[in-house]
Amino acid sequence: METLSETPWDVIIAGTGLAQSLLALALSRSGKKVLHLDRNPYYGGSEAAFSLDEAQEWMDGVNQRGQSPFEDVKIFTYQHPQDSPQSTPSQDGSESSARPAGTPDIRANLAASRAYTLSLSPYFLYTRSRLISTLISSKVYRQLEFMAVGSWWIHSPENPNVEDCDLGATRAFHRVPGNREDIFADTHISMKSKRTLMRFLRHISKSEDEGDVETDEDLSMPFGEYLSSKFSVPQNLHAPLLSLSLSQLSQQSTSATYAVPRVKRHLSSIGTFGPGFGGVVSKYGSASEILQVACRASAVGGGVYALDTGIQSLADGDVTADAEYPVEVQLSSGESVRSKVVFGSTWDLSEKEQLSPPTKVARSISVVSSSLASLFPITVEGAPMAASTVLMFPGDTLSSPQSPPVYLQVHSSDTGDCPREQSIIYGSVSLPGPEGHTLLECAVDRLVRAEGPQAIVLWSMRYDQLGRLSNDGTPPTLHTHSPHVFSFPPSSLDLALEDDTVDTVKEAWTRIVGVEVDHDDFMIFDDRDGASAE
Amino acid sequence: MSDSAGANAPKPSSSVKLVLLGEAAVGKSSLVLRFVNNDFQENKEPTIGAAFLTQKCTLPTRTIKFEIWDTAGQERFASLAPMYYRNAQAALVVYDVTKPSSLTKAKHWVAELQRQASPGIVIALVGNKLDLTNDGGDAFAAPEPENESVGAEGDEATDEAAEDTTPGDARKVSTREANSYAEEESLLFFETSAKTGTNVVDVFTAIANAIPESSLKTGRGAAGAGQTALGGRSGEDSRVNLGERNAATAKEGCAC
C-alpha cells in the first residue's frame, strides 16, 4: 500500500486512547478494514506515557496549542542546594537545608530521560473487571506484564509513631484493613469498632454470595450516614472505607449508591489471581502499555496505523455520492480518505461543541529519590511483592471536611516507570486549578517528609485534566454526531478503570458488525501464535 | 522412571521480544518464515498489516522463546515501529546485499534504535539475499563483535576481492563495509539467505546467546510466576499471572 487514500475503509478510528484501541482490535479481528489514526506523534492520547523529555515537549504543546483535555501544565525540577541558593522550587526549602551542604548524594539525581515512563492515566484494574476478562479472552494479556496493587493507606497526621524512623513513610499513615484477618490484627481499632466493621463486611459479602438479594436496600443516603445508621460504624473508620471505593468526592458528597458496590468490588477482587491483592497495574506506563499492545494486535489483524495524522474535517451523509462509503475525511497530511463509519473522541473529531461539560480534576506526577519501601509490605503469606499502592488524604487532613480527598498512587520501580531506588507518585484530586494543585503539592510533601531527609521530589508535573469520573453518575455512551460518525465519551479520570469503557467499545463494535457475528464472541480470539512450531 | 524425570526436567524458559526492521522487500518476512517454518516462498506477497510469530530456540542451558514482531510494510506511515521496539530486547535490522540504499535505511534504523529503544537492546545487522551473490553458500558470519576470530578477517578480504571482480555477481554491498559498520556500532553481523537457509538459524542463536541473563524474563503466563516473592524487591518474581484463572474468567466475562 502506497497511500492511505488508495482504498476506501470500513472504519476510520481517530485517536489511540484505550477505547479506540480496543475497538480497532475487535474490528480488525472481525475482518473489517480499519484505518487507525492519531493526530499526535505518539500513542495513547490522554492515556499516553512519556519519558522526561517527552513530558516537557508535551507540556509545551498543550500550553501552546490548547484544544486537548489538558490545561495549565507545569513542570518543576529539583535544584541541588549547591547549584542554586533558591533550593527546592515550589517548596519552602527547609528539607534541602536539612541535608549537610556539599554531601554528594548520588541517589538524589534524575536518571536519563528514558529511564522514566510517566503515565498520564495511571489507573489500575480490579482483577474482576471487564477489561481483565477482555484482555484474557482476546489473548492480549500474553503481551503484558501485570504487577499487584498492594495496600491502601489513610493519612493520619497525628500518628503516635511519628518518632519511629524505622517506619519510613508509613509513620504518617494507617494501613486500611482489607479483610477480616487484617481487622483482627489491626492495633488501632477498638474491639467494639471491629465488631461494627465485621458486621458491615459480612453484610456486603452476603449480598454478593446470594446474588444481590438486597438490591432493594435504601442506598440513597450519604455513605457516612449509611455506615453510622445501619452498622454503627464509628466516624474514624468512614474515611478508610471510603478509600476502598476510590470515591473522588468528600464523604458528605459520596452516596452509598456509589460507595457500597465499589467497596464490594474491592473486597471481592482480592485473591482472584493470587493472595493479598485485588488490583493489578500494567508494567511500563499502565494504560499506555495496554492500549499499545491492543494496537499491535490490531495491526497483526490487518489494521493500518498512521500517527501524526489527524482529522482536519469530515463530511457525512452525502448518500447519493458514494452510498457505500458515505464519509469523506480530510486528513491533516493533506490526503482525503473515504469510510463507511468514523469513530473518535470529541477532541479527535475536532468538534467544537461539548455535549455535557466534562469533569475537571487536578493531577500530578512526582519522581521521588526514594523507593518508599515501607509502603509495600507483604501482608499475606505467598502474596507477590506489590508494585503500586493507594494513599488517601481525607479532605480534613489537608484542608476542610468539605474538601475532596487527595489520592496518591505510588509506583515502585517494579512497574518499570522509574529506576531502582526511586518511585513515582501519581496524585489526583477532583478540584482543578491552583487550589487542587496546592492540595496535591501538600499531600506529596507530607508523604516525602514522613519518609525522611533522603527523600526528595526530583521532578514533578502538575496539570488539570478534563474527562469523566464515575462519581458523575451517568454511565457514558457513544454519541452520534451524524449518521456515520460517532464519538466516544471522554477518557476516564477514575483511579481504577470502570467497566463502562469496555461497554462502550462493545456498543461501537456491535454497531459495525451488526448481525454478522454472535455478539457473545466480542473480543474472544484464539491464540495467534501463527506459524509457531513447538 | 527417576532417570527420565531428571533428563526431562525443563530448562528455564524465557520470552524475548524481537522486532524486525528494514526497507521493504529486503526479505524480513522470508527470514522469519525460514526460521519459524524452515520454508521459503519465491515472489512472496508484501506483508499487509503486521505479523506476529513465535519460535523457540534451544540453548544448552535454557530455552528462548522469540516473540517476533514484523512491522511489515507499515514503516511508510512511520507509526508501528516505535511501538514495536519499545521494551524489545532484540532487533533484527535487515538489508539486501544487492541494494546499497537498503543498508543506508538499515543504518537509519540502528540509529533510531540506539536513540529510542531500551538501552540493553541486542541489535543484529543482517545482509540478506546472499544467494544472489557468488559466495552464496559459505557466507560471512561474525559470531559476536567482541570475540571476532582472526580467520574471519582473512576470509572476508578474499571474499571481497572476489565479489568486486566476478561478473554476474549481484552483490552491491561488500561484507567488509557492513561488517566494519557493525563493529563500530557493536552490532551482531551476519549475511544470510532466506532462500537457501544459510546462516538464518545462526542469527537467532547468536541473538539468544547475546541477550544478558539479567534482562531475561521467565515466560509470560508461565505457570508459577507471580507466586513466590518473599525476598527482596524483584520485579520478575512478583509479576501477576493472569493465565491462572484463564478459563473461568473468560467464561464469566464479556458474555454480557
Task: Please describe the structure with a list of short key phrases separated by commas or semicolons.
heterodimer; A: 534 residues; alpha+beta; Guanine Nucleotide Dissociation Inhibitor, domain 1; eight-stranded mixed beta sheet; globular; disordered C terminus; B: 256 residues; alpha/beta; disordered N terminus
Could you characterize what this model shows?
The complex is a heterodimer of chains A (534) and B (256). By secondary structure, chain A is α+β, with helices and mostly antiparallel strands. Chain A has 13 helices and 20 strands. In chain A, strands 4, 6, 7, 8, 9, 14, 15, 16, 17 and 18 form a 10-stranded mixed sheet that branches. Chain A is globular and about 70 Å long. Mean pLDDT of chain B is 74; it is low at 1-6, 143-165, 218-236 and 246-256. The radius of gyration of chain B is 20 Å and the shape is globular. In chain B, strands 1, 2, 3, 4, 5, 6, 7 and 8 form an 8-stranded mixed sheet that branches. Helix content of chain B is 32%, strand content 20%. Classes of the chains: A alpha+beta (534), B alpha/beta (256). At the A-B interface, helix 4, strand 7, helix 10, strand 10 and helix 13 of A face helix 2, strand 2, helix 3, strand 9 and helix 8 of B. Strand 7 of chain A pairs antiparallel with strand 9 (239-240) of chain B.
